[in-house]
Amino acid sequence: MYDTIIIGAGPGGMTAALYAARSNMKVLLLEQGAPGGQMNNTAEIENYPGYDTIIGPELSMKMYEPLEGLGVENAYGIVQTVEDAGEFKTVITEDTTYEAKTVIIATGANHRKLGVPGEEEFGARGVSYCAVCDGAFFRDQDILVVGGGDSAVEEAMFLTRFGREVTIVHRRDELRAQKIIQERAFKNPKIKFIWDSAIEEITGDERKVRAVKIKNLKTGEITDKEVGAVFIYVGLLPQTSTVQNLGILDGEGWVITDDHMRTSVPGIFAIGDVRQKDLRQITTAVGDGAMAANEAYKYIVSL
Ligand code: FAD
Ligand code: NAP
C-alpha cells in the first residue's frame, strides 16, 4: 500500500513526488514514457525561474535525478483506470494493480490534431507535432507551422534554425501567443505569416509532404503552397480517459479541482495541465504538484 501514487512524470508529477517523498510518504511515480512530459518536446524554456534559458529535456533530467535518492519508486506503466474504494484507491495498468491511500493525477495534455486530409497519411513523412524532435530533418526547406498560440510561435522560431523560411498559418489576424513571443517572431526575418487562413489539405508523394492547400477564410480563395514539412500546434487535449469513471471531469474532459488540488473524490488530487485552469505552464504545474503532495499528506493524517 503506497501513501500516494502519482500518475504522470511531467513537471507537475515530479514535483509532487519530490514534496511527498520529503514528507516521508511512500511514493510510486507511474509513467508511460520518459520522465519530463511535454518538456521533452520543448526546444528552449525561457520562463522557468533560475534559468535564462534551458532546453526541455535537460530541465526534465534535472527534475528527475533527485527523486531516486529520496526513495521515490518509479514504474513504467500505462494507467488504464483508477478506482475509488473509500480509504484506498486502486490504480490499474495494463499488467499490474497497485493500491494507495491517495492518488495524484498528473497526466497532462497532448497535442490536438488538425483533422485535415493528409495529416494522418504523412504522419512520419513531414507532418509533425514536435519541432525539437523533427526540425533537423527539414534543413533548408520551407516549413509551415499551423496555429497562433505560444507553442506555434515559439516552435516556429526554433524551426528557423533549420528551415529556409518558416510560414505561420493562423486562422485569425491576431496571434494568441504572449506579446514578448509575438514581438520576437515579428522581428525574425525568416518568419512569414499567412493570416485568416486554414489548411484544407496536406499533399505529397510516397516519400514526403510536398505542399498544402490553404484557404483564406475571409475571401474563400484557395492557394497551393510548396512546403517540405508541416508542424501543427493547434492546442491541447486533456489526457483523462483513465479517470472518466470518477465523475471529476468538466464537459471538455479537464479535471475539476479546488485551490488545494482536491477533486470531488476524497484522496484523489489533480495537478498541472490536466486541471481545468487558465495558465498551463511548467511553473504552474510545479506549484500544483507541491500543493497536492502537501494536501495528500494532510489527508492521510486525517484518516
Ligand atoms: P505533462 O508535461 O503533459 O506530463 C504528463 C505526463 O503524464 C506525461 O509524461 C505522460 O506520458 C504521462 N501520462 C499521461 N497519461 C498517462 C497514463 N495513462 N499512464 C501513465 N502516464 C501517463 N511551459 C512553460 O512554462 N514554458 C515553455 O517554454 C513551454 N513551452 C512549451 C512548448 C510546447 C511545444 C508545449 C507543447 C508546451 C510548452 N509549455 C511550456 C507547457 C508545459 O510544457 C506544460 O504546461 C507542462 O509540461 C505541464 O506539466 P504536467 O506535469 O501537468 O503534464
Ligand atoms: P493554445 O494556446 O490553445 O493555442 C492554440 C492555437 O491554435 C490558437 O491560436 C488557436 O486559434 C489555434 N487553433 C485551435 N484549433 C485550430 C484549428 N482547428 N485550426 C487552426 N487553428 C486552430 O495552445 P498552445 O499554443 O499549444 O499552448 C498550450 C498551453 O501551453 C498554453 O497554456 C500555453 O501558454 C502553454 N505554452 C507556454 C509556452 C511558454 O510559456 N513559453 C510555450 C508553449 C506553450 P485561436 O487563437 O483563433 O483560438
Task: Please explain how this structure is put together.
With 303 residues, this protein is an alpha/beta fold. The chain has two domains: 2-110 and 236-302, FAD/NAD(P)-binding domain (3-Layer(bba) Sandwich), CATH 3.50.50; 127-232, FAD/NAD(P)-binding domain (3-Layer(bba) Sandwich). The strands form five sheets. Strands 1, 2, 5, 6, 7, 8 and 19 form a seven-stranded mixed beta sheet that branches. Strands 10-17-11-12-13 form a five-stranded parallel beta sheet. A three-stranded antiparallel beta sheet has the order 14-15-16, with no helix packed on it. The protein has helices at residues 11-22, 56-69, 131-134, 150-159, 179-187, 282-302, and strands at residues 2-7, 27-31, 44-45, 54-55, 73-76, 79-85, 88-93, 97-105, 109-111, 127-128, 142-146, 165-169, 191-194, 197-204, 209-216, 222-226, 229-232, 236-238, 268-270. Bound molecules: flavin-adenine dinucleotide (FAD) and NADP nicotinamide-adenine-dinucleotide phosphate.
